[in-house]
Specification:
Helix 1 (about 15-30) packs across helix 10 and helix 4 (about 85-90) runs antiparallel to helix 7 (about 160-175). The radius of gyration is 22 Å and the shape is globular. The chain starts with a strand and ends in a 9-residue tail after the last helix. A hairpin with a 3-residue loop joins strand 12 (about 230) and strand 13. It is α/β, with parallel strands linked by helices and about 400 residues long. The chain is about 35% helix and about 15% strand. The strands form 4 sheets. The protein has a 7-stranded mixed β-sheet, with helices on both faces. Strands 11-12-13 form a 3-stranded antiparallel β-sheet, with no helix packed on it. The protein has 14 helices and 14 strands.
Length: about 400
């Protein structure tokens, strides 16, 4: 394999050990290559970088208005929005670059993926390669919302077409890399749907040894023999994506799905335990105590998701001011509307995690029934259509910024 190959991952400080683990697993298989870690919220004086680990910091990327990025996005959105400029920068040095999420471990060489980049500008891996068999979550409708291709892996070469695609991704993710199904976004993933139609040389890798994860276990059986993990008893496992899997809940395969767990797929327990061991070998959970500097204003006041979303549709994000400054105008706006959040605020709820019997939700449902009874079905349908749109805080410009002449697109 050419020495002009590299792989990378993008994290916040709290995923430092995960990044070291995926780096270690990749370099074990590819000692001739390089691996880079982008820490979007670093540097931090308490972070110890081992010798030989190649680290870059979000603030050092060639990104205009980086602090504006950091305010408008939560941690996951920020990480995914910066992947494109990160990879574009690496492709100034390397011929081929793969991006692996930090919750991945590599078990075999990725030569086939690098080889695809000999003749293809971009390599994508779909979530599924055959239909789902049942009604459990995630279902096929979930992937209509979450995108065709999983952003836990993406590969680019240094061709002009690849760089055009990365620049396009960077521009789109600068303004719309939200995790918000009400407006049709799923971080950077949804934008990948358009890559095969907008750009030439996009290869869809369907080989099942790559990016094995909870969402495609219905089509992939794993067994351990001859010192290796095998997929469908045909090919060595190349890499597994441990999305939603953490040593904090060691009996849980993933927090995102109900189809499989370590009870009905007990053969996966040694794989999961090996992942936990890899994290602990890198020092987990030490980084959990490292603060995300973009979670608070400069005076320590926590930043809420609502304030981030309103910042994104306001004129504040184009002012060039430091939005984290407690003496700044955006901080004053948050004071006016009481928009301060809580430390380590949850990213949000969905229909599966919402407590539907909450008394407050019962009151809201009662109000809906009253509207239907007193105003009729036609008005009720119109109101519901409006609520579906305005549910996203980013569609509430006319509430908080009435001076705007029209709502955002």
């Amino acid at each position: 394999m050419s020495s002009q190959t590299a792989a990378c991952t993008t994290i916040t400080l709290s995923y430092w050990e995960n990044a070291l683990a995926v780096r270690h697993s990749f370099l074990q298989q590819h000692p001739e290559s390089e691996f880079y870690i982008l820490v979007v919220d670093g540097p931090d004086p308490n972070l110890v970088v081992p010798p030989g680990v190649r680290v870059m910091w979000g603030k050092d990327l060639p990104v205009e208005g980086f602090l504006s990025y950091a305010m408008r996005y939560n941690a996951m959105e920020l990480i995914t929005s910066l992947k494109a400029p990160f990879m574009r920068l690496l492709l100034e040095t390397y011929d081929k670059v793969l991006h692996l999420d930090a919750d991945v471990l590599v078990y075999d060489r990725l030569d086939l993926l690098f080889k695809r980049l000999d003749s293809s500008a971009v390599v994508l891996i779909p979530h599924l390669t055959c239909p789902l068999p049942d009604h459990y979550q995630p279902g096929e409708a979930t992937f209509l919302l979450a995108a065709d291709y999983n952003s836990g892996f993406i590969g680019f070469n240094a061709s002009q077409e690849a760089k055009r695609a990365l620049l396009w991704l960077e521009e789109r993710c600068r303004e719309a890399c939200y995790d918000d199904s009400t407006t049709g976004f799923c971080t950077d993933q949804k934008w990948y749907n358009l890559l095969p139609t907008l750009f030439s040389g996009v290869f869809i890798e369907r080989s099942r040894e790559f990016n094995v994860a909870y969402w495609n276990l219905h089509e992939r059986q794993l067994i351990h023999r001859d010192g290796k993990w095998w997929v469908n008893n045909e090919r060595p496992l190349a890499f597994f994506h441990f999305s939603g899997c953490s040593p904090r809940d060691p009996d849980l395969l993933t927090k995102y799905a109900s189809r499989y767990d370590l009870t009905n797929r007990p053969e996966l327990r040694p794989l999961v335990e090996g992942y936990f061991a890899a994290l602990k070998q890198q020092g987990w959970p030490a980084s959990l105590d490292l603060p995300n500097r973009f979670e608070c204003f400069s005076d320590g006041s926590p930043i809420s998701m609502a304030s981030r979303q309103l910042y994104a549709i306001s004129d504040f994000c184009h002012s060039g001011d430091d939005p984290f400054d407690a003496d700044g105008v955006f901080f004053a706006f948050c004071q006016k509307w009481n928009l301060f959040g809580k430390q380590h605020e949850a990213m949000g709820a969905n229909r599966w995690t919402t407590k539907h019997e909450d008394p407050r939700l019962r009151v809201i449902r009662g109000l809906f029934r009253m509207v239907l009874r007193f105003f009729g079905p036609s008005y009720y349908a119109k109101m519901m259509n409006h609520l579906q749109w305005v549910t996203s805080t980013r569609n509430q410009a006319l509430i908080f910024f009435p001076q705007k002449s029209k709502p955002p697109l």
